[in-house]
Design brief:
Helices cover 46% and strands 22% of the residues. The chain has seven helices and seven strands; from the N terminus they run H-H-E-H-E-H-E-H-E-H-E-H-E-E. Strands 3-2-1-4-5-7-6 form a seven-stranded mixed beta sheet, with helices on both faces.
């Protein structure tokens, strides 16, 4: 992580905190991951040597930049999906400031459509941080698109346990996945798909 990129992230943290404190419209709140969660995500990308990363729910791009720092080391790319034009504009500007635009493909689209249309076993690292009520609906496609040995990481495992419980129960009952919750930030539910 370069000092300049870290400075951009710190500025984004302040912007997110200030916005979330005053904004009542949930669609305009940032709801970013925490700094230590970002460090964990970047580390997991490097540890798994992930090159094909899919992020569902990018907000203003804070978490994307952390993973972009990781894929820069692995020679990979991130595809990030969000349905908000407002957040796309913010994220695009932040990616330029952090010098990671060349590592990221932005999609202004419904996440369910993107997951449904992806080829099977085409994602090595999948991060979910968006409409938790839709995770159950998306699970068959999430499961399908992950490569054997692929990693699923879902934010808010401890901050929103009631909303996360249905997905976590499904994953924990699936013999192809090994999972755990890491008590960092808002809680990260991490599930590894077996290699067969």
């Amino acid at each position: 992580m370069t000092p300049a990129r870290r400075d951009v992230l710190r500025e984004m943290e302040r912007f997110g905190a200030e916005t979330d404190a005053r904004e009542t419209d949930n669609t305009r709140r940032m709801r970013n991951i925490t700094f230590d969660t970002g460090e964990l995500l970047s580390m997991l990308v490097r540890m798994t040597n992930a090159r094909r990363v899919l992020e569902v729910g990018m907000s203003n791009g804070y978490s994307t930049i952390w993973r972009a720092d990781g894929v820069e080391a692995t020679g990979g790319r991130i595809e990030t999906v969000d349905a908000s034009e407002y957040k796309h504009r913010l994220a695009r500007a932040n990616f330029t400031r952090a010098a990671v635009s060349h590592l990221i493909d932005l999609r202004l689209e419904d996440a369910g459509t993107v997951l449904r249309d992806r080829a099977a076993e085409s994602v090595e690292f999948l991060f979910l941080d968006t409409q938790r009520a839709r995770y159950i609906e998306w699970w068959p496609d999430v499961r399908r698109v992950l490569v054997p040995g692929g990693l699923l990481v879902v934010d808010n495992a401890t901050s929103h346990p009631d909303e996360m419980r249905p997905l976590m129960s499904l994953v924990q009952a699936d013999s192809e996945f090994t999972s755990l919750t890491i008590p960092v930030g808002k809680g990260e539910f991490v599930a590894l798909k077996s290699r067969g």
